[in-house]
Amino acid sequence: MTATVLIGIPIATAHAAVIGVGAGSYRTDRPAGTVGPSNSDGAPVTPKVTAAVAGRPVPTNEWWSSLVWQRYAGNPYSENMYAHPLTFHAYGNGLGVGYPTTATITPDTRTYEYMHNNDLRVGVTGLNAPRTEVDGWGDWHVSPKWTDGPRTLRATIAHGSPYVYASVTGGTGRVDFLGTASVFSNSGNVVGVTINGHSYGLFATSAWTVSGGFATTNATSYSVAVLPGTGALSQYATYAQNVITDTRVTWSYDAGSGNVSSTYTTTTTGTGGTLTALYRHQWLTTTSPLTAHTYVSPRGQMKVRQGSSFTTVSRFNGVLPALPIATDADRNRLRADIDAVLAESDKFQGATDTYWTGKALWRLAALIPVANQIGHNSARDQLITLVKGRLQEWLTSGGSGQFMYDGTWDTLIGYPASYGSDAELNDHHFHYGYYVLAAAMVAQHDGAWVGAGQWGGMVKLLVKEAANYDRADTMFPLFRNFDPFAGHSWAAGHAGFAHGNNQESSSEAMMFAHAMVLFGQNTNDTAMRNAGIYLYTTERDAVGQYWFDKDNAVFPGAYTHDTLGILWGAGGAYATWWTANPEEIHGINMLPITGGSLYHGAWKPDITQNINELRANNGGQEVEWRDVIWQFLAVSDPGSAHSLWTGNNPAPEWGDTRAHAYHWISALRGWGTPSTTVTGNSPTSAVLGSGTYVAYNPSGSAITVTFTNGQTLAVPARAMAWRG
């Protein structure tokens, strides 16, 4: 075995056991007694891909990941997949296709769901494949492939696409009608059929033969589309042969306006582009014209765009490492609360795995700017030393905590793992975001420590593991956790559920994006910073719509909850993975409170609605996680939050401290709640209330931040400044 020491992002050498990255390292063999990606029986699994894509970094945590990851030994095809508006399920004889349009509310009223149900099956006559493999993918499309020897089927499906494209060999193309069906149009190459109340078009270059409950064609390729109505059949026929070959997002950030522009491009064969259904968060912010066609989805109404691309524009309002201390904050109280943390016998509270270590790191790192603002320099320096020390332990191979690169799945796994972050590749953005954010707090005071030759290279690997933004970097797939088209992240590596993939803590996903912005800004990595801004802004827009239903336009009318604990491909649930307590159901989409949590200011009225529902379902005021809940409340009503805090001084949630909570609440009470109408030309700036301007400058030279209302703020080098 050999050890290779590299500066920056490494390229692993064959048979290497330890790869050096600056002062840190990771290993390429699995630590004894640990596991990697597995099925539900605990047996190791490898990606189900064809030779055509072998060697490409394998995406996980996708809406379609159950195609590439066989979670259950008895199902080598897929679980339900929710692309919206269409849903899918792969079988040995083809691809089941559905379009669920009616929400079901579970008897306990906690979950709304649009479950997949097969309306038809796309296939080839006689197909009986032993498994399905992935033969290609893009940023939001995938091409599964079936072969049983003489026959093959290759399909292409995508987020937002009303089409399923199929190519076949060894037999006739076949579409089975799996329900009550009636043909409303048949012109030979184009057939219109209504199945289970949903209208579809069948398109081919050779005539269809409709017989009983199925249709066949001798064409080697054909497509099926769900129609917004029977009258759209001829329009959808126009694009039916334009097969999707690539899907790709690009983004840009304009500091002067704060605008994030994102362009979503679908490349097809033929000319004229295609038809694409946009989610609510997209059509609310698009600058591209739309048709009158719409679809039903678990994310509310989708609207159809004709063409090869569309662009969205949304404003980024900035993030901060911390809020500025309130003028009337009790500094003695803050000092005493910080000292109490530093007096603990175990300042990491027994944390050993990736998740709880991350939370423990942030718990201490969050106090660094608080101590700095009150001039408690000895505490600040002690906190920096503690955070550095634990990070260095984890960022070095061979210790009690370490990272291992799995070249089979192109992933960096931390051990000891937790919550399936090893066997299922769950939650890497949740876990690793805390490490990156803690490193960003250290970087404010020790830029050399995060240099590529020291520890910055390993931190950058953690960023790229969960959100690789560089298409040229083949060590990891693009944006493992983040789904560009859905606008939010997915937590489960395999997506092996009847409800599709899921994500619980939207706020921890936002924390990861915040960490990307801060770390990128601190290390002068503009590409990382801008990718983080894209993730942050896009996910904020999606979270507001799909977790908080801020416009009251997404959740079904019969659903009695105002917020979700878990978002699913099929819908959403007022729940968590571990408890039914309202405090945690609401709080899991609040924590951690960071200088990036200002995004909640985009739905202040919903914060009041959220807290009211929590208390109604709790049978009274919250008794758990009060620090988290009151910091969230402070974004809308800091006066009430401050009164609650000072009147109770509660024990904090495990990953927080009294000092941090009081500092946050008193700052919003003193300076005002986040503004969403004015932004600065630095990504690390914000406006509070009607006239408090705040900015952080990590550079070695003084800067002047200009805000969109014409106000300016001078910020010294390596400092945060504010005026109000």
List keywords for this structure.
724 residues, alpha+beta, Glycosyltransferase, eight-stranded antiparallel beta sheet, seven-stranded antiparallel beta sheet, 38 strands, disordered N terminus
- Supply the helix-strand structural class: alpha+beta
Q: Do you know the CATH topology of the domain at 331-723?
A: Glycosyltransferase
Shape: globular
Taking strands numbered 1, 2, ... along the chain, how are they ordered across the largest sheet?
A: 10-11-12-13-20-17-16-15
Could you give the count of β-strands?
38
- In the CATH hierarchy, what is the class of the domain at 331-723? Mainly Alpha
Round the Cα radius of gyration to an integer and report it.
26 Å
Fraction in helix: 25-40%
Low-confidence stretches: 1-14
CATH-scheme architecture of the domain at 331-723: Alpha/alpha barrel
- Give the overall average pLDDT: 97
Beta fraction of the residues?
25-35%
Q: Sheet bearing the most strands, described? A: 8 strands, antiparallel
Treating each run of at least 4 consecutive H or I residues as one helix, how many helices? Answer: 16
Distance from N terminus to C terminus (CA atoms, Å) equals 60 Å
Question: Can you describe what's shown?
Answer:
With 724 residues, the chain is of the alpha+beta class. The chain has a domain at 331-723: Glycosyltransferase, CATH 1.50.10. Helices cover 25% and strands 26% of the residues. The strands form 10 sheets. The chain has an 8-stranded antiparallel beta sheet. Strands 4-5-6-9-14-19-18 form a 7-stranded antiparallel beta sheet. It has a 5-stranded antiparallel beta sheet with strand order 7-8-33-32-31, with no helix packed on it. Helix 6 (367-373) packs antiparallel against helix 7 and helix 15 runs antiparallel to helix 16 (658-671).
